[in-house]
Amino acid sequence: MSNLPEYLLDRVFDALREMVWRAWTDPELLSSWYARGETIIHKFDLKPGGLGLNEMRWRDNSDRRKIVFQEVAPHEKLVWHHSSSDSDWNIIANPMMPDWPRVILTIVTLEHMGAKTKVRLTWEPFEATDAEIACFAGAVDNMSGGWESGYVIMDEMFVELQAVNT
What we know:
single chain; 166 residues; 7-stranded antiparallel beta sheet; globular
């Protein structure tokens, strides 16, 4: 266990683990729920050391994210380093929050619960400065809104996918 601030979000989805895994790992599905606005997946190489490059667009704004996968255990666990990036995919400080950690360790676990799946999302600063750790700690209580809005979209997506598969 780390003494770093940590963001945890547990959620049970009314969908089989294979379908929830697909929502996290199929670029087409991922882009439909991952962020408010439009999400463009430029690259998604799902393997340890593989890159995920995505861009979130809203109104006249754009935010690029670089993901480096650390661990991929199909249907069970994803671990990656998550960073803001410039247009050449170089890691940069977050343009909207300069003290935000340059790298976030993200862990997503999926637990089989019969016809349901429990997802645990964990975020933690990685190799962060004191200022970055303080910024992250100050934001933890307000992080659920974005993730929860994506999870609501995911709920709707699972209903549609299950209807197609029946």
